[in-house]
Amino acid sequence: MRESAARAEVNVTEFRIEQEPYYLPIGRECERFEAAWRARLPVLLKGPTGCGKTRFVEHMAFRLLGAARKDREAQLITVACHEDLTASDLVGKFLLEGEETVWVDGPLTKAVGTGAICYLDEVVEARKDTTVLIHPLTDHRRILPIEKKGTVLRAHEDFLLVISYNPGYQSVFKNLKPSTRQRFVAIEFEYPPVEAESKILAHECGLPDKEAKELARLGEKVRHLKSQGLEEGVSTRLLVYAGKLMAQKIPPREACEMALAQALTDDPDVQRAVRDLVQAVFP
Predict the structure, then answer these.
(1) C-alpha span between 271 and 260 (Å, rounded)
(2) Mean pLDDT of 121-140
(3) Share of the chain above pLDDT 90, in %
């Protein structure tokens, strides 16, 4: 795996995945994604924060492109979208190098040209005039117009565009335009059920099965606090953080205070409710 050089204007990571990332399927999401890739249909992943969308994309990039790509090209190029993301950030731009002007491909152009999976994370954070540029890639044309060069790039046969967003934060100001949304097939994610989440925690944290199950059960209980003022349920990611602290010999209550009660909210009443649940699970 390698990370691209840091850029001030856009957060991009390029992955050459050497080993299969761990991912525990909850339903038929792997088969559905593979079918979409084989049909070259762009994919929308929707679900709450920290439920495994990014790990899922990494897993599928290895599964679909790992065996076929023995060169050093990236299998997955991820862009963390934000409100200042421009079309040039995605497509590329002319830059001065010494006395010469050179063209530098953006992450989307690299993915289109090399046949990587391009993952636009939290795409609703990007400006709508930026997301419009992906439209020609998401229908039968599969092309990327590069206006500054006056050229059109045809997508590599392995290229796939994947976008994600969190419906929990959906608003009239941050939502996918219907003209964009209807260009994708969608796969919905939720937090794993207790049994599955306990297996994930045991694998990711190295916890004994008993502690992993208790932590997963705590996660389920904390998610019920959404009706009591918690903005969003505790993510599997935060449960993994708590489990890793526990694996480092931090007592369970202290680990959960750091990774759950303090990380989830600043509301003292909700924090108190989380602590009560922690004490009930880890007496």
Answers:
(1) 9
(2) 89
(3) 69
Which tokens is 245 given? 């602290």
Give the residue from 74, 151, 160, 152 showing the smallest Cα distance to 117.
160
Most confident of 12-16, 95-99, 180-184: 180-184
**Does 29 or 5 have the greater pLDDT score?**
29
Host H or E run for residue 221: helix 209-223
3-state secondary structure 122-185: CHHHCCHHHHHHHHHHCCCCCEEEECCCCEEEECCCCCEEEEEECHHHCCCCCCCCHHHHCCCE
Q: What is the pLDDT of residue 72?
A: 57
pTM listed for this prediction: 0.88
132 vs 203: which has the higher pLDDT = 203
Q: How many CB atoms lie within 10 A of CB 156?
A: 15
CB atoms < 10 A from the CB of 9, how many?
Answer: 13
Helix (H, G, I), strand (E, B) or coil at 247: helix
Q: Are 186 and 41 within 8 A, CB to CB?
A: no
Structure tokens at 160: 């796939």
By the 8 A CB rule, do 154 and 114 touch?
A: no
Amino acid at 31: E
